[in-house]
Design goal:
Elements lengths: L2 E6 L2 E9 L5 E7 L5 E2 L8 H26 L1
Antiparallel strand pairs: 1-2, 2-3, 3-4
């Protein structure tokens, strides 16, 4: 299990790769310590890929939230 922490648009992101029983990996991320988001059931072949996909998902979530906030303001 590996963890990566980043800051993007003043939001703290923590992504963790999660080993699965079948030998594949998934991911979990939190943004500013909020409830965790987890990957779907599709297994990934390496921790590095899991961390990258988890980070991409977190960045997309932050951008989506910022866009929604912009549209409603």
């Amino acid at each position: 299990m590996s963890t990566r922490a980043e800051v993007y648009r003043e939001k703290a992101i923590v992504v963790t790769s999660v080993a699965r029983k079948d030998g594949t990996f998934g991911w979990e991320y939190t943004i500013d310590g909020a409830d965790p988001h987890t990957s779907d059931r599709r297994g990934l072949r390496s921790e590095a890929v899991a961390l990258a996909e988890g980070l991409n998902a977190a960045l997309a979530q932050i951008d989506d939230d910022a866009f929604r906030e912009f549209r409603t303001s």
